[in-house]
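Milestone M4 deliverable, item 7.
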Amino acid sequence: MPDPQQPWYTPGPPQQPVPGNPYAAEGGAPQGFGPPTPPPPPPRRRFGRGPVVATVVALVLVVVAGGVYAVTDRGRGEPTRPVAKESPGPSGSASPSRTPAAGGPKLSHIPTTEEVGAARKPGEAAAWIADDRADLPKQINKVHDLWIVGDTAVQALHRKVTAYRLSDGAEVWSVTLPSAVCETPANPTPDGKVVVFHNERPDNERGNLCNQMQMIDLKTGKEGWHEKLDEPGDDDTFIVYSAISGDVLSVARGMVVITYRMADGSKLYEVPRENKDKCVPDDVAGGPARLLVSSECMIAVERGKNYGQVRELDPHTGKVLWRYRMKTGWRFGSLISMDPVVFTIYNDKDTASDWRITVLDPKGKHRVTFDARDKGFEECAGTGSGGDIQPCRGASVDKGLIMLGGQNQVGAYDVKTGNFLWGIKDNRLRRLYPLRAEDGKSMRVYEAAGSSSPGRTYLMGPRGAGTETDVVKHPVATARWEYEMSMGRTAYVGGRLVLTPTIVSGDENKKPVREARMLSFAPGSP
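Output delivered:
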């Protein structure tokens, strides 16, 4: 049971406003933010979300205590992530132009796992860091989904799919594709197979279609079948969404969803439109044996009179198992959990800030919808629901708890009632991510690194701040690279935390610190 006196606690003194900085009173941004990385192109809205336009980026730069605040309005797409600046790093580590601190790795290169181990201090976690010297285009390159298969962590970046050993970060295998990866599903098949989508041409010019399907066995790195996406027209394959449900691959693009057999890439069926073609399937989400298809139902010209719906289909036959319609004016946002089905919805008239969380029962009937904005939570920890509907970063469901994270806070809601239970609201400008529930009474939380100090992993229970128990103290030696990943992807397996960035710059001349591909921490020795 939550502590009735203090279910929501704010530790530490409040941050003092900075004269002339209107954002400081609202929390601002972490000190040490440098000039912002050029943002990637905003994700294209799914059909019905309005025309695609160039996002207008408003930047307010205010020098504070030797650092810079960057405030960016980027809509519901990928938020601007922190960029390390060339001032001294953690524990006196220096920029590439200066002499590094004794015992710490140089910042002009990615430190090896051996260097990280040599710099490890008593009580700090064992860590490994993965580097890749493969050439990248001088642009912002997307790091795709993180897969944990057996004893490896696998990621796709540009033309390579690479597996790293979980115990020490050593590269186990890699596959080089003829062109850049443009889409990946959130999860592989139960036996570790996945289909990655890559561009039709090897160049990075406009008009390059995302229509090549390559099956890869993530346990061995062996390539399987390769097929061109079966499609009604080329105009529908610039933006592709995919999901794997057991041994079935589902692909959404434009206003079409088609399923394929994972075994050989042969076509199974097309997901039909509904309501006299007014309800158009637009995205898919998968799991070990379940398939969800979201649709946008365009009943009227006025957006506020339309609505979204979600269906569960039998992956092998396409039979509709249940259908849930959102209220008029509301659309499907992002999937938080497949079992039970928990997802965000958003108001079509205010896609940037008006959102809720909806929970369904096993038969697709409405259980509860609640508003987490009164506690300050942002949808999917601030990443919104642009692009793929799966996963919703910074949110998860485990052991009866809906766990939400984000800037400065993490908290738990009851999955049956939607009632807020307990959480922490912090003023230290850290990003907090829930990793898993612990017997429904507490949760394991990852606190991302700051600009000058490492992160940590801890347990937090219903009594909130001040009762945390540190599980893993992250090493100072990797703090600068951990900070680069503070808005990236996370995976927690067997007591080990794995981090990756979501984007990597290919222009290393503009980066004071080279970006690592993956970082991992564990309580024991690697």
